Amino acid sequence: MRLPLPTALLAVPLALLPAAVPGHASAGWQPAAARAAAPRTLPAPVRPAPPALPLDGATQPPEYRYTGAGFDACSAPPAEALYVWRSASPYGAVNIYTSGSQRGCQQPRLTPQWVSTVRAMGWKLVPTHVGLQAPCAQRDDKPLRIDPARAEEQGGQEAGEAAQALQELGLGPGSPVYLDIESYPTGDAVCSAAVVDFTVGWTRALWAAGYRSGFYSSMSSGIADIVAAARAGRAPMPDAIWYARWDGRPTTDGQAGLPDDLWAAHRIHQYRGSADETYGGVTLNIDRDQLDGLVAADA
After folding, report:
1. What pTM was estimated for this model as a whole?
2. From start to end of the chain, where are the E strands?
3. How far apart are CA 103 and CA 41, in angstroms?
4. What is the spatial distance between Cα 240 and Cα 236, in angstroms, rounded to a whole number?
5. CA angle 129, 135, 137 (to 5 degrees)
6. Is-contact 243 83, C-beta < 8 A?
7. What is the Cα–Cα distance from 126 to 276, expressed in whole angstroms?
8. pLDDT in tens, 34-48
9. pLDDT score for 1
10. Count helices and strands in the chain by DSSP H and E runs
């Protein structure tokens, strides 16, 4: 059964709510169970990269940064929920899974109209791509993995898909998209090198398309390998990082394993995992984040 809308929502101007919202399933309002049981998307064909745009010092698009509390949810929440949460919750930024063959949930609401609507409410967006995973990853729900022999090439191909998705959603040049590499076993040099190579290809292709490169992973695996690569002088490295360390600390500095001189003011910290939170009578299942980093370009 669909939950009744809070009284405050009845006053929302019609222009702020997409026409498709009334027909959405109630799972968006109470996603705790749906998060685990949501149907998986089928692998999508790789799209070619958009035409290259030079990114020298004179033509780089501006950065768009946000500092404050944010959250991520498996599926883009209903616009009604975000309208209520914008004033009732402490959050000002929300992740969206914009592309990738291995996204964990379907995205029936994620359209250019939804993006325009929630941005008009004041939300900052964190685009995320979930594609190939580390060669040594042990995840039945994400079986597609990087080929170490083609890692850099594959990273570039997935960046093309990610950039195309941003364009289709109306997220302009300068927007970052965060490559989601889930936790993987440590100690495998070939696996670590493949993740770094893939990220290099991803970054280079996103820069060529006019977008910025982000990288999400656990502090103990992907972030550790990217930090080591940066220290070794490997380039290009991502513009921003988003690290998972569920320590309950809403801060982006003073992190063991992440030196303060790397990606300063270009960080997101996912500090608490899946939990139900209720504001204004609306419940969503979310991960908590603290941001001092890059978000999608302003409209």
Report:
1. 0.82
2. 65-72, 93-99, 124-129, 176-180, 212-218, 240-244, 267-279, 282-294
3. 7
4. 12
5. 75
6. no
7. 20
8. 333 333 333 333 333
9. 37
10. 6, 8
